[in-house]
Amino acid sequence: MWPWQQIEKLLKLRPPEPNYYLNIPRVMYMPLMQDQGPADHLAQLGPVLYTCAAHVTEGSFEKTDISLSQIKSLTSIVDGPLQRLSLIIADSLARRLLCPVQGFSGALIHPSDYFEQPILQTARCNLANLSPYISTGFATINRAILEAMENEKVVHIVDLSCSTSHPRQWMKLLREFHGRQGGPPEVRLTVVHDNNGFLADMRSLLSKEADMLKIPFQFNPVIGRLETLDFNNLRNTLNIKYGEAVAISCSLQMHHLLVVDDNMSCSGIGQLQKMTNIAQLKKMASSVYSPTSTLNYPQTPSPQCQTPKLLASFLNAIRALKPNIMLVMEQDANHNALLFCDRFVEALNYYAALFDSLHAVAGANPQRADERARVERMILGEEIKNILVCEGVHRHERHERLSQWAMHMNRSGFDHVPLSFRAIWEGNQKLMSFGLNGCQNKVENDCLLLCWGSTHLYSISAWRPHKGSSSGSREHMLVQPQHQII
Predict the structure, then answer these.
(1) Which residue from 144, 426, 434, 442 lies 20 to 30 Å from 20 (Cα-Cα)?
(2) Which residue stretches belong to region SAW (predicted)?
């Protein structure tokens, strides 16, 4: 018989509501490794989190309850990014323990059911406004598009960024087109998004901007998400005309197409993986002594050796459109590992750095603390839950590293387009404008990596179909950048 009292305790430990942190006296921002005072308590968080994950993998309610109580005690000392992250991870671990219990999996509420859409959309916009990395991505992508469309008279931009789409990116591009030597092109913009109200507001803002700049402009809204589009009829869905120059921008969405049914919990292999998970998590628990080491775990490549069918279908459809350029921005992390322990290590490493960076932004702008709290709870918190709780087709936050994306793109018939020195420089200028010493801009294989300290957070790369097969109507060669850390 299941220990229901233990289950009740597990359910009580959940991340506080977004406005909870607003009522706590804030401490001035400093990097995690420089925390003084509660440092001894913080040093215990890493081992306790790994111990808790091991107990969850074992299926022990009693041991998990003890670990969760320890996490709650350690996180109550001071409000900081690692503490807030630990609460979200604890909630995720509790849910993972409960999922196998008959009836509980279906009873757990999906975020779309308890976050009202207007509030969720506000949180999405808050992330784009707060994050130095998304703003940097927009600046770099825009410059690459401008260079690829330098001599085109009719430009069709397809924004497949869905929930990451932001009118600010395209307002800036319209202004850049306005100042183009020889005059602006006719601009058609197609945006895919699941919120009709957002699309209507975006159409209004951009149409007014285009009118003011006297740029011929057409806005095509497409209701939906990337993974729900009809890849067999993508040209008609996106209203792309033959002969026009096409630029495709896809930010933080393509990983949703990596979904595969990799749930092997009922097989002998699954049992072996469970034993491996427990052994590795316990080893981590005994070897972690400080929160700084949480940010420096070795990175393991994703074991996936084949491009999933959904992603392959999408890339084949994109290649058939013959775009002049395709820009891809993705989280640079290995959250697509089959073993839970590998995902847990990577998630703790990645989100500790990401939470720390947002904490720095809010520390420099205290009036934005409520925005940061919403982003952590509604956007990043739900990503973490999906990575740590869900398996198989239910796990859609399958972030991969730049090398994996290069493999998928090459296999699907795309050539890499080096980002120009100017595109990288403009991105760096945007990143540095936030005034945060931890933000780093790194060039790797002619692509851009955005980092917090030594931790890679996002990658930006450019692609086009193989020449001679489905390449664009005109070759747009970008200048080779110098290999350096800016």
Answers:
(1) 434
(2) 389-464
Q: Which residues of 144-171 are buried (b: 16+ CB within 10 A; e: fewer)?
A: bbbbbbeebeebbbbbbbbbbbbbebbb
Alpha-carbon distance of 348 to 15, in angstroms, equals: 16
Mean pLDDT of 53-58: 91
What is the Cα–Cα distance from 323 to 157, expressed in whole angstroms? 10
Q: Are 108 and 99 in contact (CB under 8 A)?
A: yes
Q: Which residues 6+ apart lie within 8 Å of 138 measured at CB?
A: 166, 168, 169, 172, 430
Average pLDDT of the chain is 82
Cβ-based burial of 260 (10 A; exposed 0-12, middle 13-18, buried ≥19): middle
User: Could you tell me which of 239, 237, 230, 420 has the C-alpha nearest to residue 325?
Assistant: 420
Q: Which helix (H) or strand (E) holds 181?
A: none
Distances (CA, A) of 272 to 56, 123, 209, 277, 279: 16, 40, 59, 9, 11
Q: Is the pTM of this model over 0.85?
A: no
Alpha carbons within 13 A on the beta-carbon side of 21: 29
For 30, residues 6+ apart whose C-beta sits below 8 A from its C-beta are none
pLDDT band at 486 (very low <50, low <70, confident <90, very high): very low
Residue 208: both structure tokens together: 């007014």
Cβ partners under 8 Å of residue 292, min gap 6 = 32, 33
Cα distances (Å, whole numbers) of residue 474 to 145, 253, 436: 14, 27, 40
Can you point out the beta strands (E) in 185-282?
A: 186-193, 217-223, 245-251
Q: Determine which helix (DSSP H) or strand (DSSP E) holds 112, and give its type and residue range.
A: helix 111-114
Task: Spell out the long-range contacts of 101-105 with Cβ–Cβ below 8 A and sequence spacing 24 or more.
Answer: 101/2, 101/7
